[in-house]
Structure formats: structure tokens, C-alpha cells
Write a structure and sequence with these properties.
With about 200 residues, this protein is an alpha/beta fold. The protein has one domain (about 5-155): Ribonuclease H-like superfamily/Ribonuclease H (Nucleotidyltransferase, domain 5), CATH 3.30.420. The chain is built from eight helices and five strands. It has a five-stranded mixed sheet with strand order 3-2-1-4-5, sandwiched between helices. β1 (about 15-20) and β2 (about 30-35) form a beta hairpin.
Length: about 200
């Protein structure tokens, strides 16, 4: 495994979990969970934000082929608005781990919070830089969510979802003001709520 990862975090049956999409104004929050196979390591794993889109796609295909188990799950826009983004992110991560087959013996979660669950687990701050399985999860989640935002760009032309992936860029905010909020915008987020109130 690459030198930047702590080998004590890469034992058999250890799942890494990460989510993508807390900050955007639109779209689901997506989480992934991965149990890597020590006999079939995936070379080049990094935090997904440090990789090009093409490299993420390549690694995602390798992860899906070589991992012992992997899953991708989500919390919807409606759940984000109902629960808040933190709780929705934890829910998505819980769903991702619950979907793993086989189930993990231990779970490492990127960040400083854990979902409420019965798994033996620990949070790892900057885990996508320290734990290979978390880096793998961040890649799967990012590839999945980016693909979904490309589809939303086709469904809702004019908002620029393919470029900004739902994040509150000046162009996205300008489109919101001009075109209004869509069904996939998070109404609990302040910029969207302000647009709705102005309408």
C-alpha cells in the first residue's frame, strides 16, 4: 500500500467510509464503504479531490473489481431538508456500511463523527489521506455523485450542474436567482431558502 497510509488501519475486514456532497446546494449526499482485499491492493489511492476525473474513473473501476466488498448509498434532498446535512450524511454512511457483503469487523469513518450504529468503529480526521479504504470510498462516492450531477445537468439545463456539481459558485447563485429553485435544490440551505422567500 502507498506510503502515506497507516498500515495498522488496513487490516482484514476493515471498512473505510466517506461521503461526498455536504456543501452543494443541490442533489443527494452520497456515501461509499469499501473493504479492500490485501491480496489485491489498488495502487494510487488518494483523497478523491486530489485526483483528476479521469484518474478517479480508472481507480473506481479497479476498486469495484478488486475490493472484497463495496457499496454506495445516499440520503436524498428531502432527507437532507428534514434531518439537516450532518445527520443526512451520517445516515448515508450507515446505509453504505449496512449494504456491505460481507459485513466489516471494524469501520473507519472519515471525519470526527460516527453514525449511531452497533459497529466497532472510530472516526479518522483527514482519513482519506491516512486510510486506504477511506480513500477508496471517497473515490467511489465522488464518481457516483459527479455522474448524477451530469444527469441533473441534462434534466435542468441552465444551472451549470455539470460544471459546479451543485456547489454555490457565483454562476450557480446567479442561475438560482434568474431561474428559481428546482426540485433537486436543498430548501434548507440558506441561499436556496432566500430565493424561495424572495419568490
Amino acid at each position: 500500500m502507498d506510503d502515506l497510509f497507516r498500515p495498522d488501519y488496513d487490516g482484514p475486514g476493515v471498512a473505510g467510509v466517506d461521503e461526498v456532497g455536504r456543501g452543494p446546494l443541490a442533489g443527494d449526499v452520497v456515501a461509499a464503504a469499501v473493504i479492500l482485499d490485501p491480496a489485491r491492493p489498488v495502487s494510487g489511492l488518494r483523497d478523491s479531490k486530489q485526483l483528476s476525473a479521469a484518474r478517479r474513473e480508472q481507480l473506481a473501476a479497479q476498486i469495484r473489481e478488486q475490493a472484497l466488498a463495496w457499496s454506495v448509498a445516499r440520503a436524498t434532498v428531502a432527507e437532507i431538508d428534514e434531518l439537516n446535512i450532518l445527520q443526512a450524511s451520517l445516515l448515508a454512511m450507515h446505509r453504505a456500511v449496512r449494504a456491505l457483503q460481507p459485513q466489516p469487523v471494524y469501520v473507519l469513518v472519515d471525519g470526527n463523527r460516527l453514525p449511531r450504529w452497533d459497529y466497532a468503529s472510530e472516526p479518522v480526521v483527514k482519513g482519506d489521506d491516512r486510510v486506504a479504504a477511506i480513500a477508496a470510498a471517497s473515490i467511489l462516492a465522488k464518481v457516483q455523485r459527479d455522474a448524477e450531477l451530469l444527469e441533473l445537468d441534462r434534466q435542468y439545463p441552465g444551472y451549470g450542474f455539470a460544471r459546479h456539481k451543485g456547489y454555490p459558485t457565483p454562476a450557480h447563485l446567479a442561475a438560482l436567482r434568474e431561474l428559481g429553485a428546482t426540485a433537486v435544490h436543498r430548501r434548507s440551505f440558506a441561499p436556496v431558502r432566500a430565493i424561495l422567500q424572495a419568490e
